[in-house]
Specification:
Elements: E1 2-4, E2 11-13, H1 19-33, H2 48-63, H3 71-89, H4 93-117, H5 121-147, H6 174-194, H7 197-217, H8 220-260, H9 269-287, H10 309-335, H11 357-390, H12 400-420, H13 429-453
Antiparallel strand pairs: 1-2
Length: about 450
């Protein structure tokens, strides 16, 4: 519950945030990202990740007074239902139940706890710091892999094909590692912009370190997503003309960087295999257009995965699952879109003089709060743009990382609403109509792109 003064936009927030649920949330984030329990083989099978998530969830339900259940929660719950129905449709009820259970853990619960417990800028900052430290730990392990005579890092993970770095757990795929690095880089930029001299130096070094990690993953999807994220930033802040001119000026450097990565040409064997997978995925979608072939069943029909989360969702969950997943993704992006009216927080006008030092101090504090809130919201937008771009080249529809970051982004939506004093959940009718059309358009674009590249 917030008390809003319409003249000064001064928010007096009642203390409704419980401490222990957020503590369990931080523990969960450390365990899914840093994964220290997997450094030793004796501890790898301990269910500490699931336990920490359940502790965060149930303590949130019991102790947190102000609970949030955003529309994305409903989308994810309906995806659980689609997975069950898809399993039944394909004659594998047991598989549908298993898929639904796994998605509750990797998608539904993370959305609930991260969107509901990330209630302040300080909490957002803490979660971002955990992500940055985790990324640097992963890069350090990757460097140790490169320096090892047998290609095994100190965490126990080995180099992948073409000497690409990996990490433990689901980060054993260099593409997942690259995706996480790209999604974390906006956090580093935020710390750089907000910090003093020392923080700026540390942030700059951290950013360079993580960028080097992107290079070591040799992930084409991560590189393309990084460029796309920069292009979106340029377009929203400088306009179309300056973005095009900047792109032309930087094109020699971009070409040089792309040459350092594996070829992205469609005639290259790996890339051609991806396009073939996209084609097969669309054929599966046409075969089972409503409920798909079942979550996790793509490999039963093709020898390699789809290498595209959009195609994978269409193939495995059909149009019903794809629409729900697109609502989850696009609505999250919309919630933190920098130029959306609700997110356009106007900074208070600085008066020529103040009646007292106390008034000046109060104004300065509020001014900095509004400015920080705006920056954190924008930061999560670019992080989710990185996710949306990277998963175009990866089969990560059900990856927990996307839902964790989405939960933090959704939380910024509610935090911004406290500053504007506006209803945090306006009518979604027009938004959902646009998302429906964008969903149908995306299918058409996928078909055209596959046809051109085949």
């Amino acid at each position: 519950m917030a008390i809003v003064n319409s003249n000064t936009r001064l928010i007096v927030q009642e203390r409704t945030d419980a401490f222990f649920p957020f503590l369990f949330l931080c523990l969960y984030m450390v365990l899914i990202l840093v994964r220290p329990h997997e450094w030793l083989p004796q501890l790898q099978d301990l269910p500490v990740i699931r336990l920490s998530l359940l502790l965060a969830f149930f303590s949130y339900l019991v102790l947190q007074q102000d609970k949030k259940f955003p529309p994305q929660t409903l989308c994810c719950m309906l995806l659980v239902l689609v997975m069950l129905l898809s399993g039944i449709r394909n004659g594998w009820l047991g598989g549908g139940i298993t898929s639904a259970n796994n998605f509750i853990i990797s998608g539904v619960l993370p959305i609930i706890v991260f969107s509901g417990l990330t209630t302040t800028v300080a909490r957002t900052r803490m979660l971002m710091l955990i992500a940055i430290i985790a990324a640097m730990v992963m890069v350090n392990n990757g460097i140790s892999q490169k320096n090892s005579s047998v290609g095994i890092g100190w965490a126990g993970s080995a180099l992948s094909w073409l000497d690409r770095i990996t990490y433990v757990g689901f980060f054993n795929d260099p593409n997942d590692l690259g995706m996480f690095f790209v999604m974390t880089l906006p956090f580093v930029v935020l710390f750089f912009l907000q910090g003093g001299f020392v923080i700026k130096v540390i942030s700059a070094l951290s950013g360079a370190y993580i960028l080097y990690g992107v290079y070591l993953t040799n992930s084409r999807g991560a590189l393309v997503s990084l460029v796309a994220m920069a292009a979106v930033f340029s377009y929203l802040n400088w306009g179309k003309l300056k973005t095009v001119l900047t792109g032309l000026l930087l094109s020699p450097a971009l070409i040089f960087i792309f040459m350092k990565f594996r070829s992205i040409d469609v005639d290259e064997e790996s890339a051609a295999g991806r396009v073939d997978s996209w084609y097969e995925g669309m054929q599966l979608f046409f075969w089972r257009p409503i409920l798909g072939v079942g979550q996790g069943n793509f490999l039963d029909y093709h020898h390699i995965t789809a290498h595209n989360s959009y195609v994978l969702t269409l193939a495995e969950l059909g149009l019903s699952g794809y629409f729900l997943w697109m609502v989850f993704l696009l609505l999250t992006l919309y919630m933190v879109y920098p130029q959306r009216q609700l997110n356009t927080i106007t900074l208070p006008t600085v008066p020529e003089s103040f009646a007292s030092y106390r008034e000046q101090e109060a104004f300065t504090k509020q001014y900095n709060r509004v400015k920080a809130q705006k920056w954190y919201s924008d930061c999560m937008f670019y992080s989710m743009v990185g996710f949306a771009g990277t998963v175009f080249f990866l089969s990560r529809t059900y990856s927990v990382v996307g839902y964790v970051f989405a939960g933090i982004a959704i939380a910024q939506y509610y935090q911004v609403a406290k500053f504007t004093g506006l209803n945090p959940l306006p009518s979604l009718k027009n938004i959902m109509t646009r998302i429906l059309w964008l969903t149908l358009l995306s299918i058409f674009v996928l078909l055209i792109a596959i046809r051109v590249m085949l």
